[in-house]
Specification:
The chain is of the alpha+beta class and about 210 residues long. The chain has one domain: 2-Layer Sandwich (Muramoyl-pentapeptide Carboxypeptidase, domain 2). The protein is built from five helices and five strands. It has a five-stranded antiparallel beta sheet, with helices on one face. A hairpin with a 2-residue loop joins strand 1 and strand 2. The longest helix is centred in the N-terminal third of the chain and has 36 residues. It is globular. About 5% of the residues have low confidence.
Length: about 210
């Protein structure tokens, strides 16, 4: 049996192998079928039946297991469920060990969470900086609001307030009321740091 962090390296390598064998479509099928519909089906059941309360139960348990140092913050406000990830344990493991086989490991989260939220009737606002930091806001589809200003929902715990949120040469990926990877906004489309390409992922250091 391998440990949780060692698993991350095998996980990331699997994405690259699938891409070589069957292209990006096969990787996306894996995220949706093997994660969304299989390994995390308990998350689907919780969120489809309990909504925001199910999200709190799922991520409240899962993130404590994965990130015992509590490098995250969960915030619930009327109409929105927010996650701030200050130190992603899996991406952090890859960075600390200099591991990169798949071109954008962070994409796998939207690859399975997006379809799950769509099924449950939610949409996602999200950004990640490819350096182990991200934030998520989930709202009911069709509800107002989205992409809250920094600090508006989670106060001082908002990861966007950290001085290293946009490190040198960072590329932010953004989603607005999204449930699909194809809804990713390139940085140049919202006044960011330049148009993102697969070779533009920043080099991050532990």
């Amino acid at each position: 049996m391998i440990g949780c962090y060692d698993f991350c390296a095998h996980y990331e390598w699997t994405f690259a192998w699938l891409e070589r064998e069957g292209g990006e479509a096969l990787v996306r099928d894996y995220w949706n079928e093997a994660i969304n519909h299989d390994s995390q089906r308990h998350a689907r059941e919780l969120i489809e039946s309990e909504g925001f309360a199910g999200m709190a139960k799922y991520w409240g348990h899962t993130l404590v297991e994965e990130s015992p140092d509590l490098g995250f913050k969960i915030t619930e406000q009327p109409g929105v469920f927010r996650l701030d990830m200050h130190d992603c344990p899996s991406k952090g493991f890859l960075i600390r060990n200099g591991l990169q086989q798949y071109h954008d490991y962070c994409d796998h989260c939207m690859g399975w969470v997006g379809p799950m939220m769509k099924n449950a009737g939610f949409v996602i606002d999200h950004e990640h900086n490819h350096c182990g930091q991200c934030w998520w806001e989930m709202r009911k589809a069709g509800s107002p609001g989205g992409h809250s200003s920094p600090g508006a929902v989670s106060g001082a715990s908002d990861v966007r307030l950290k001085p290293d949120w946009i490190p040198p040469a960072a590329i932010l990926d953004r989603y607005s009321k999204a449930t699909d990877l194809d809804q990713k906004l390139k940085c140049g489309e919202f006044g960011g740091l330049g148009v993102k390409g697969e070779t533009d992922i920043p080099v991050c250091f532990a």
